[in-house]
Specification:
Gyrase A, domain 2, single chain, Isoleucyl-tRNA Synthetase, Domain 1, alpha/beta, about 525 residues, 15 strands, five-stranded parallel β-sheet, about 15% strand
């Protein structure tokens, strides 16, 4: 409907010899201001030096369409449109026909997108920051796929470097202790319960037979075990990946010395204090960074350059990296490296997720009650459930700090938004279970009150909300939409009987709530929430 009205206004302006490409159509907050409103007359007044009320009159005089009941001009120059409700009923039919495809589109036209998210080092357990980044990355991938993009979800395994060496040393130290051999933990070792558990498992299965194994054995085993734990936790969180990329394999494929030679040939390398530096201050960064240390070891920036060169070689239209806010300074140096290689840096977008605070009964929770360490993703899911975790993390834009309220997330009442939305879905399922309407209604006649119109209008908005969420990469728009749709349904249900003595009215009501069910399920599916059929 917005597209239709925009086109009518453009054609009217053309008759007035006015060209304007951007025409905004909004939904008025007050019912008396119509179904749609446009401020184009106010916008044009500044450019053509004419009273906006007169411009509005001129625009309206050129518009005559059957689907428009009437148009009103309100000061200081708004054009309000009152339209026939036929478009809502046509959309209702479309929703019932499309079912799980309702709201999908092909705006992506098969463009190849890569989204890399979580990518936590396999040296410990996933924490709340990973939970938030995971919810965002997976939800965005679902929305983009639903909108016609070809999306690859990727996990980058940091299985090389000093952190993996320290992991191997930590497991070895714990294992030797179990074997009765005194062995201190490494200076930068890992002290988590998961490290102790790996060592205990090794000892239980092998006794002291592994004492002669070299460090690489413990490094590889630890990486494999912890990555398996991470993947299992993510799968429980309803996240799966299309591609896992190993840092070790990238390093084997792209020579670190060759990368430095490449940058040197482009005059982006110099030596200082025995180290080799990347001159990225001449590109996008405000300072230079070391690529090769004085001791001959390479910094992680070298492997990250190799990894992103590999990504570019795969031909993606866009690559999205989702990182913690502590990586703020990393963005400019990474983009500088790609620019040095003459890559299109507009194809690479780095999103930084802000911090999460866990709150319970108004108090900030910093440590797990069970372990005394940071609260993990697994603990959070066990505490509130996957639905609540996914929903709550999808409520806010990624660039805003958020409080995850445990009290709210666990509440079994309407104060809990995921409970409120789920209850709408379960209530509809309960009604439809014994009252399924399999008759195809050609013309709707009894859905003629404002409550019904409000529900149908909200269902009608869904495809546009999905498109906006995809184009602007904002999953939280879907979360808000699901809540608003549930709210419109609850209002309708509280004021109207679904099952009536009038068979036609009952059948039409059943179609309406079935459309709400379809739309809610599709919307929630885009943020990784599976609504229950019973509550």
């Amino acid at each position: 409907m917005k597209d239709k009205l925009q086109q009518q206004i453009k054609e009217s302006l053309k008759k007035l010899n006015i060209v304007e490409d951007v025409i905004e159509i909004e939904k008025p907050k007050m019912l008396e201001n119509g179904d749609y409103s446009c401020n184009i007359a106010l916008k044009l007044a500044k450019h053509i030096g004419k009273n906006p009320m007169e411009i509005a009159e001129d625009i309206v005089s050129n518009i005559q369409e059957d689907y428009i009941l009437k148009m009103e001009i309100k000061k200081p120059g708004f054009i309000n449109f009152f339209v026939k409700k036929d478009y809502l009923f046509s959309n209702l039919k479309q929703c019932l026909e499309l079912k799980n495809k309702y709201g999908s589109s092909n705006i992506g036209k098969g463009k190849k997108y890569n989204i890399e998210f979580v990518s936590a080092n396999p040296t410990g357990i996933l924490h709340l920051g990973n939970a938030r980044g995971g919810a965002y990355g997976d939800s965005l991938a679902r929305i983009l796929t639903f909108s016609g993009y070809d999306v690859t979800k990727e996990y980058y395994i940091n299985d090389a470097g000093s952190q993996i060496t320290n992991l191997g040393l930590s497991i070895l130290a714990r294992y030797k202790k179990l074997c009765g051999i005194d062995c201190p933990m490494p200076e930068n070792g890992y002290f988590g319960k998961e490290i102790i558990a790996i060592a205990q498992k090794l000892y239980d299965e092998n006794g002291d037979k592994l004492i002669t194994e070299n460090l690489d054995y413990f490094k590889e085993l630890g990486t494999k075990e912890l990555l398996k734990k991470i993947v299992n936790d993510l799968e429980e969180y309803r996240i799966s990946y299309d591609k896992f990329t190993s840092e070790k394999e990238i390093i084997a494929q792209y020579s670190a010395s060759q990368i430095i030679d490449d940058l040197a040939n482009k005059n982006y390398i110099y030596e200082k204090d025995g180290a080799i530096w990347f001159k990225c201050s001449s590109l996008l960064d405000d300072k230079d960074h070391v690529l090769k240390k004085e001791d001959g070891s390479y910094t992680y920036l070298v492997s990250d350059i190799a990894y992103h060169l590999d990504k570019y070689s795969r031909g993606y239209t866009k690559m999205i990296d989702i990182l913690g806010t502590d990586h703020h300074g990393y963005v400019s140096r990474l983009k500088s490296s790609m620019q040095a290689y003459n890559k299109d840096i507009d194809k690479l977008e780095v999103k930084l997720l802000q911090l999460v605070r866990l709150v319970d009964n108004g108090e900030v929770v910093k440590m797990s009650k069970r372990t005394g360490k940071s609260v993990t993703l697994k603990e959070l899911v066990d505490e509130v459930g996957v639905n609540a975790a996914r929903y709550f993390f999808s409520r806010y834009s990624l660039d805003t700090q958020m409080d995850f309220d445990l009290t709210e997330a666990k509440a079994k009442n309407n104060e809990n938004p995921v409970y409120y939305v789920s209850y709408a879905y379960a209530r509809i399922c309960s009604i439809l279970k014994n009252n399924e309407n399999n008759q195809k209604i050609e013309k709707y006649r009894t859905l003629d009150n404002q409550d019904a119109y409000n529900v149908l209008e909200k269902v009608y908005e869904f495809p546009e909300v999905v498109k906006t969420a995809a184009l602007k990469e904002l999953p939280h728009l879907i979360t808000k939409y699901a809540y608003d749709l549930a709210s419109e349904f609850h209002t309708f249900y509280s004021k109207n009987r679904i099952l009536t003595d009038n068979e036609k009215q009952t059948l039409e009501n059943l179609d309406l709530i079935k459309a709400v069910k379809i739309t809610l399920e599709n919307a929630l599916g885009l943020i990784g929430v599976i609504p229950p059929e019973k509550m």
